[in-house]
Structures are given as C-alpha cells and as structure tokens.
Putative cytochrome c class I (Magnetofaba australis IT-1), 146 residues
Amino acid sequence: MKKNWKAIGVGVGIVGFVAAMNALTPKQGDSMTAMSHGPAGPSPIALAPPQAVPAEHQAGVTAFQSVCAECHGQWGQGTDHGPPLVHDYYKPSHHADYAFHQALRRGVRAHHWRFGNMPPQPKVTMQQANDIVGFVRWWQRENGIL
C-alpha cells in the first residue's frame, strides 16, 4: 500500500496543534494569571464619552452597551472585568475585525489579560456583531487608535 506522506504530515501537524492548545486551555481551578502568556493586558483607561455618535453607529452603540459594556465599559474603556477596547492593543493591525467576530461567536480563552475567559455571546446576531465592530473601530479612530 502506497503511503500519502503529505496527508500524514498534515495529520501529525494537526494532532500537535490540538495537543498544544489543550495544554494551554485552562482547567478547572487553574489560575488565569498563570495561564496567560504575555502581559497582564491593558488596564481600564480614563475615557470621556463622545460628544456625538454618528447615525451610522447608533445601532452599534446600542448593541455594544447592552452586550459588551458590563465587562468592557460603557464606552470601551475597560473595567475590572474586561480590558479596554479603545487601546492600541486592539487596533486593527493587531486584532482584525474577524477577531472581534470570533470573540462574539466563540468566546476567547484568557491569553493576554487577567480577567478570565470571555464567554461566547450566542444571542448577538451577525448584524449586531457588524454594528458593534463598526462602532468600536469608529470610536478607536476618534481616540487616535489607528
């Protein structure tokens, strides 16, 4: 029987990746700080509310404040439950829009912050996710995050 070495190599690579991810996934009782691999994450920042939010971002503000504000702050400034999203760390070149969509859909394992895992937000529709990301990107630009 002829072996398909390319397929075997891909399979071995996938098994190795899954094993590495499982090793990094927090288990019951693990310390989130001990599991993080990098800085503790950005701390809450002082951030004044905008003077006005453009009409095209009103739905995003509403969705953000109802879904995200409890942890990320009313205006994305962060709290003791979640990092600020108006921060260089979350600029588009470091966390693309896709990362925000995935975070909403799947949640995020704690890896760059001390706040614990972010749970998925299954009630957020694709339109709401687009609105939230649009608002966050607008608000980042307003605050000099490019």
